[in-house]
Amino acid sequence: MHDEGIGAWAERRARRTPHRTAVVHGDGRRMSYAGLYAHATRIAHTLRHHGVRKGDRVGFLGPNRPEFLACLFATGLLGAVFVPFNVRLGPPELAYQLTDCGARVLLRTGRSPGAPAGTGVPVVEVDATGEAAPAPPVEESVAPGDPYVILYTSGTTGHPKGAVLTHANLTWNAVNVLIDMDLTADETALIAAPLYHAAALGMQALPVLLKGGTCVLMESFDAGAALGAVERHRVTSLFGVPTMFRRIAAHPRWPDADLSSLRTLVCGGAQVPEALAVTYARRGLVLRQGYGMTEAAPGVLLAPPGPAGVAPGPAGVPHLFTDVRVVVAGPDGPAGSGAVRADEGDAGAEGGDGGDGGDGGDRAVDAAVGETGELLVRGPNVMAGYWNRPQESTAVFTDGWLHTGDAARVDADGGVTVVDRIKEMIISGGENIYPAEVEHALLAHPGVADCAVIPVPDTEWGEVGRAVLVAAPGVLLDPDEVLASLSGRLAGYKIPRTAVVAPDLPRTATGKAVRRQLKDRYGAP
């Protein structure tokens, strides 16, 4: 049997650099590559004991801890499929995703909740026990094209869908990162963003571990702790969303903190404000804008590094083994159902989700320099499709090109700038929020006859949701009470920060809410 999957990375690294530190946890634990492999093999045998076989889905619920990575590799050794869940999901959301992927078992660590009642999924605790001898090797044939990870991303219909990433998808993404970020064997990455998101996993953890570097894990982000970790561990690379970088720069220790070890800082999840880039440039640090999506594992574009002390612009170039196109409507029709109009969407960045593409075919033409169109992506890092959703998987591709649902333009120097979002996704502090999902939950309230969720600017999170509510006849709505009713049903970051009551909602002839009018009326900060 031959293992060509990512699960074998732990064994290969344990053989090559057994004593090098692979993982450092905030509680002081250190785990060598030999220890990481040992823990992974023990978990793999535990999973087999619970009936997990090749192709079975293994759920994981927990924060950034060594157990996350050990479970990731353990699942890979078995040829099973790793499905990490957002720890902020409400019980109904978690139950839906567990059922949708057909998880055979749910691995849990870090005081995370278990499987919601009624799912029937057994829960297995996987807290680390420190360095130990590995269990017997796990024998399983794993091919690069086998599915390895399912990452759930909300759909425009409000129903989460799982992007299926193969071993090859994640491997090629790691190769892209190693080349374009020039990571080295002595890399020390501070992983402060959640590993259950594609960016922290694909842009940091996997490339660093493949190279033999060290991952410093933070269970939850704290600006002061992040600065302390950079100094204490001599951190060389850091990924985060603008909110994280803004909080670091606003911390009292920022002016005097020793940041001399930092070489690579990548910011995604939303557009990087120029003022924020300038703040870092004044300390001799280049804050590079990244753009990607779960469906691309996730890297698509990365701004060139440029000289230290100079704030880079928003344009990025495709990763080496990833191709992009910007297309506009041809003479016979739109590029697809996600075709761009100048008045749609909001600016987006790293961490977006795929739009609903169409059979654009030869109707789409490449955009001219400076012209806005839809961004399409193709490459070995692009997903195999959506789990158990063949129609949606087919719809999002045109001749092998993935429709991102984001608007972009090609600049004169060949760089690509993401300027708008075709779909209605709200990105708040790096978390993706789809209004349709929130609206569905709001309509369950007996006093709400109609509703829409729109983005409003926020100085801390970039943007947050605002619910526009229409009361049922004879009902006097309390907006705060309506929002409170969502607690426990939706993840906290999805719940709108504010709500207003409107007499009605402007709608098109086909019944769709006219969100631009809603933003004009109710979208002020």
From TrEMBL:
Keyword Metal-binding carried by entry? no
Q: Quick one: where's region Disordered?
A: 335-364
One Pfam family assigned to this protein is AMP-binding
Q: What are its GO biological-process terms?
A: fatty acid metabolic process
Task: Keywords in alphabetical order, please.
Answer: Ligase
Source organism of this protein record: Streptomyces paromomycinus (Streptomyces rimosus subsp. paromomycinus)
Name it: Fatty-acyl-CoA synthase
Q: Which GO MF terms are attached to this record?
A: medium-chain fatty acid-CoA ligase activity
AMP-dependent synthetase/ligase domain ranges (all copies): 11-327
Q: Which residues form the AMP-binding enzyme C-terminal domain?
A: 437-512
Keyword Ligase present in the record's keywords: the answer is yes
Task: Tell me the first and last residues of the signal peptide.
Answer: none
The organism sits in which domain of life? Bacteria
Which protein family is named in the record? Answer: Belongs to the ATP-dependent AMP-binding enzyme family.
Classification via CDD domains = FACL_FadD13-like
Cross-referenced Gene3D superfamilies: 3.30.300.30, N-terminal domain of ligase-like (3.40.50.12780)
Q: Where is the composition biased (Gly residues)?
A: 348-358
